[in-house]
Fold Glucose-methanol-choline oxidoreductase N-terminal domain-containing protein.
Amino acid sequence: MFVLLGFALCIVRIVLSLPLNSPLLPSYDYIIVGGGPAGLTIANRLSEDPEVNVLLLEAGPADHGESTIALPGMIGDEIGSRYDWNLSTTAQTYLNGEPRTISQGHGLGGGTLINGMLWNRGGVGDYEAWVQLGNEGWSWDDLLPYFRKSETYTPVSTEELAMQFSIEADADVHGYDGPVKVSFPHFMWNSSAVLFEALNELGVTTAYDPNAGLIAGASFLPLNLDPALQTRSTARTAYYDPVLGRANLWVSTGQYATRILFDGRDGAIDVTASQSQDSNSHG
C-alpha cells in the first residue's frame, strides 16, 4: 500500500513539475535575476511556499552534464566556453601591456560550473568587521548555522591521509545534511604533503581546517565534490535539480535583464535586450 502511494505521489510530482524554459506567466510573486549560487539558493527557499510563484532568469544556458564540467580533472576546460562570460580587463601596464581574462560563470549554476571547486569560508575577523560597520546579524557566530546548513561534509577517508596532508576537520563547524556535497578527492598528490613541510620550515603555519574561520596559513581545502561519484557538486545540482517537481518554480535560460522598475517608475529607455541561442524566446 505504501509503495503504491509513494509511486502515485512521484507520478503527481512529474505531472505537475515545470520543465526548464516552460512558458511564462504574465506576472510572478518573485522574480530573481541570475541563476548562480545566490539566485538558485533564493529560488529554492522562496519556492518552498507553494502559495507563491517564483521565476528565475538566467542569461546563460543550462549545462548537459558535460564531462568538462563534471570531472574535477578537467577543471579549466570550460574557461572561454559558452559557460563563461568571456570578460577581460583593459590592457595592464604592469602585465606586459596586455589584457587579462576574468572568468565568470555564464550558465545555470554560475561560477560553480567552471571554478576550481575549493570549498572555503572567510576568516572570523572578516565577518566581525561587517558587524563593526553596523551590520548586526552578520557575525561569524550568526552565519555559522547557515554555513553548516549548506553542506553535506564527508571527512577525508582515513586518519593516515589526514595526517599526511595536514587535514584536521572541526566537526562542530561542518554540516552533514545540506544540499552541497563537500568532500576530498580519492587521489592526492604526494607533492602536496611535501609542500606543507616546506612551508612550515619557512615559518608558514598550517591551518588544519580553514572552514573553522582561522584561515591564516597553508591548508588542504575540501572541494564541492560528490564523495561517491567524484563529480562536481554545482549550485544547480544542489539547489535546483532536487526541486524540479515544484509546480511554482519557473526557470528560464537565455534571458537578459536590462531594466528593473521600482514602484512603477519608468526606467532608462536607451537599453537593448539580447537573447542566447539556448533561449526559447519567452517574453
Observations:
- The chain has two domains: 18-117+235-283, 118-231.
- Strands lie at 30-33, 54-58, 87-88, 101-102, 151-153, 180-182, 249-253.
- DSSP finds eight helices and seven strands in the chain.
